[in-house]
Design a protein that fits this description.
about 200 residues, binds magnesium ion, alpha/beta, binds adenosine-5'-diphosphate, 5-stranded parallel sheet, 3-stranded antiparallel sheet, single chain, globular
Length: about 200
């Protein structure tokens, strides 16, 4: 699914990390934990091909990514529902798939709202729903639960684990909460341990 060997990256002259290794099996869901600024978001962007590495190899065995960015990137001129429709790959069962994704993130009542009418946590949940209808085989989830209260984090992390498990999708979840990591992931990976 993914094989990273000896990966190094710098922004201009500023090194972020060197000699990183990570292997992800098909269907495996991991939680990636580490202090702010260690390079977690940078690593996800490298995996997605939005940045390119200075050194090392990154073998990609996935066919489609679903990426939830740390900053929600919704189209401001579209409603929540229209944001989901915009990434649909097929029209088959579109209505049900959208309804199901919105139900999973507890946004069924907000389908017709525009992003500016949503709180920060709701925007991230809408991004998560959009990733779900986008149906990648690898999900990159950059702190999607950060601004949610405890109850929602619990509900959504469990529902998401079940749904990705049912689909057999792989995922890398970046989180600062050990409880979310345990609920969601098969394996917890500490960023520092990738350098060994
Ligand atoms: P994390 O997601 O683990 O908090 P990031 O990957 O966002 O960390 O950032 C890693 C380091 O790279 C930080 O020191 C950050 O300030 C720096 N950084 C992040 N994005 C950029 C950028 N676009 N240009 C220059 N430096 C950056
Ligand atoms: Mg980050």
């Amino acid at each position: 699914m993914l094989n990273i060997e000896n990966l190094s990256f710098s922004y201009d002259q500023k090194p972020v990390f060197t000699g990183l290794n990570l292997t992800l099996s098909p269907g495996e869901r991991i939680a990636l934990m580490g202090p702010s600024g260690c390079g977690k978001s940078t690593l996800l962007q490298l995996i997605a091909g939005l940045l390119s590495a200075k050194e090392g190899t990154l073998q990609k065995g996935y066919s489609k990514l679903s990426y939830v960015f740390q900053e929600p990137r919704l189209f401001p001129w579209l409603t929540v529902k229209q944001n989901l429709e915009a990434v649909l790959t097929s029209k088959e069962d579109a209505t049900e798939r959208i309804a199901e994704a919105l139900r999973l993130v507890r946004l069924s009542d907000s389908a017709d709202l525009y992003p500016e009418e949503l709180s920060g946590g709701m925007k991230i949940r809408a991004s998560l729903a959009r990733a779900l209808v986008n149906q990648g085989d690898l999900f990159l989830l950059d702190e999607p639960f950060a601004s949610l209260d405890l109850e929602l984090r619990e509900e959504i992390s469990i529902a998401l684990r079940k749904e990705l498990g049912r689909r057999g999708s792989s995922a890398i979840l970046v989180t600062h909460h050990l409880e979310d990591a345990k609920r969601f992931a098969d394996r917890i990976v500490l960023f520092d341990d990738l350098k060994k």
